[in-house]
Amino acid sequence: MTDLDTVRQMDAADPLAAFRQRFLLPEGQIYLDGNSLGALPRDTPARVADTVAREWGEGLVGSWNSADWIGAPQRIGAKIARVIGAAPQEVLVADSTSVNLFKLLVAAIGARPGRHVILTEPGNFPTDLYIAQGVAALLPRVDVRTVPRADIVAAIDPDTAVVLLTHVHYKSGALFDMAAITRAAHDHGALALWDLSHSVGAVELDLTAANADLAIGCGYKYLNGGPGAPAFLYVAARHQATLRSPLTGWMGHAAPFDFGDDYAAGAGVNRFLCGTPPILGMAALEVGVDLWLEADRAALFQKSRALCSLFIELVEQRCAGLGLTLASPAAADARGSHVSFAHADGYPVMQALIARGVIGDFRAPDVLRFGFTPLYIGYEDVWRAVEILRDVLDSGSWDTPAFRARAAVT
């Protein structure tokens, strides 16, 4: 049985322990919600302030050239390519995940004429389903088909244009076999589009080895880019010449500063740019990505698995009989970097935990979700969080009107 001395020894031996000081974390809190919003890197405020005061304030419009604002989507995209196992010219930072998903879904359907099905799973992240439904409403004869995850491969058929899945499930943390499903899609002539929002920076990714076609992901979770950080998209080089973005904005033009009346798609992945890049958000995101790239990724992913496994072990030992049911895969290689437990009164339980300084989140109808970001979470944090969880459940301190009252964001 793991005890407190053991977890302290694990922290002492942790090669990533020094990264915790690179983040501005409130004293007295155990922040287990980096899978929703990553913590603030210490270097971000100064970087954003410099972008505002010097680049914008002094450089003014000239900073599009002198500070390379215009190259930010490609420059930061090339850095994210190193995180996800892609080539530099295959990734762009642009827009939001929802907008990028719309662009790539429409492009994928257009590249598979005669096919009309977007195949996904029920319970996929809602924006993925909503965007797919919106695309189907716009395009003639396109349908969204949902089947249970165990049946995805068998459901791919000649009508399937694109398989749309979230690599790490936002609620359960369950991990799809990207290479196997992509291969199955290709065997039937379909494309595969992956949402990496809960994967990027959290689990090993090699889009090249998986022969992935298309992907999107956000910058504000494990990449620590800040609330609403710009998202990214990936288009495999082999598809870039034939896919067409439905949002033909001026930044995606082959020569945007020629100011011609007629659209001509830019070269390569650049055609998936649309509007002017949000430079302040880009500056914050680049700090988070650069920080992540400093870490030893083998140690990072090993620690991710170890933190999650320790949390499951301790909860099952110390909270037995208190109403919790594991809602994530037990096997470390089958999940991402967050762990979910179901509880009949999950919402007020999570509010009681937050009041005690353990910051997780709740996902309807009954899931308490805990994220473990290896750069700033330690093993003793896990121990302390479980002790507080046990006390909250054992004491019934969660059962108050204040904790049951729903906030706008859960």
Short description:
The chain is α/β, with parallel strands linked by helices. It contains 13 helices and 15 strands. Strands 4-10-9-8-7-5-6 form a 7-stranded mixed β-sheet, with helices on both faces.
Q: Largest sheet, if any?
A: 7 strands, mixed
Give me the CATH architecture of the largest domain, please: 3-Layer(aba) Sandwich
What sequence of helices (H) and strands (E) makes up the elements? HEEEHHHEHEHEHEHEEEHHEEHEEEHH
Low-confidence stretches: none
Q: Predict the CATH topology of the largest domain.
A: Aspartate Aminotransferase, domain 2
In total, how many beta strands? Answer: 15
State mean pLDDT (0 to 100 scale): 97
> Helicity, in percent?
25-40%
By CATH reckoning, the class of the largest domain would read: Alpha Beta
Query: How is the largest sheet built, in terms of strand order?
Result: 4-10-9-8-7-5-6
Percentage of β-strand residues: 5-15%
Shape, principal axes of CA atoms: globular
Class based on secondary structure composition and strand pairing: alpha/beta
The total of helices stands at 13
What's the number of domains? 2
Task: Report the CATH superfamily of the largest domain.
Answer: Type I PLP-dependent aspartate aminotransferase-like (Major domain)
Oligomer: single chain
How far apart the termini lie comes to 34 Å
Overview of the structural elements:
Helix content is about 35%, strand content about 15%. With about 400 residues, the protein is α/β, with parallel strands linked by helices. It has 2 domains: about 5-15 and about 295-405, Aspartate Aminotransferase, domain 1, CATH 3.90.1150.10; about 45-295, Type I PLP-dependent aspartate aminotransferase-like (Major domain) (Aspartate Aminotransferase, domain 2, 3-Layer(aba) Sandwich). Strands 4-10-9-8-7-5-6 form a 7-stranded mixed β-sheet, with helices on both faces. A 4-stranded antiparallel β-sheet has the order 11-12-15-14, with helices on one face. A two-stranded antiparallel sheet has the order 1-3. α6 links the parallel β5 and β6. α2 packs antiparallel against α9, α4 (about 70-85) packs parallel to α9 (about 280-295) and α10 (about 295-320) runs parallel beside α12. It starts with a helix and ends in a 6-residue tail after the last helix. The mean pLDDT is about 95. Homodimer. It is an enzyme of class 3 (hydrolase). Keywords: Hydrolase, Pyridine nucleotide biosynthesis, Pyridoxal phosphate. Belongs to the DegT/DnrJ/EryC1 family.
